[in-house]
Amino acid sequence: MAYDPVLADEIRGVLADTDDLSERRMFGGLSFLVGGNLAVAVRGDGLLVRVGADAAAELARTTAATQAVMGARVMAGWLDVPPSALGSEPELAAWVERGVSWARTLPAK
User: Fold this and answer.
1) Structural domains of the chain, ranges and CATH numbers in brackets
2) Dist CA 39 CA 30 (whole Å)
3) Which of 1, 21, 99, 101 is the most exposed place for a label (fewest CB within 10 A)?
4) Residue-wise pLDDT tens digits, 62-94
C-alpha cells in the first residue's frame, strides 16, 4: 500500500522538535517511532495511531477513528484515523500527540 507523502511531511513538521524520533517503513506505510516505539504511521491517506486499549475504545466511540484491523485481526490499542479527521493542522497535531504520548509510556528500545 502506498502512503501519502504530503501527509508524511506534515507529520514531520508536527514532530520537528521531538527527541529520539525515527522513521521506518512498516505496516504498508511510513511509521514514526519515538524511543523505538511506534507512535503513528501513514497508511494510504490516513493514519494508524497507537493509543492503548482503553483510549482506543473511547476514541472509536467519540471520533471518526475506528479500531485498526490488520488482516482479520482487530489490533487492540490501535486506531485507523481517516483523512476526514485530519483536515486541519490542529487536528493532525492532536492525533500525532496521542500517539507520541502513548509511545513515551513504553520502555525505549
Assistant:
1) 5-104 (3.90.1150.30)
2) 11
3) 1
4) 999 999 998 899 999 999 999 999 989 999 999
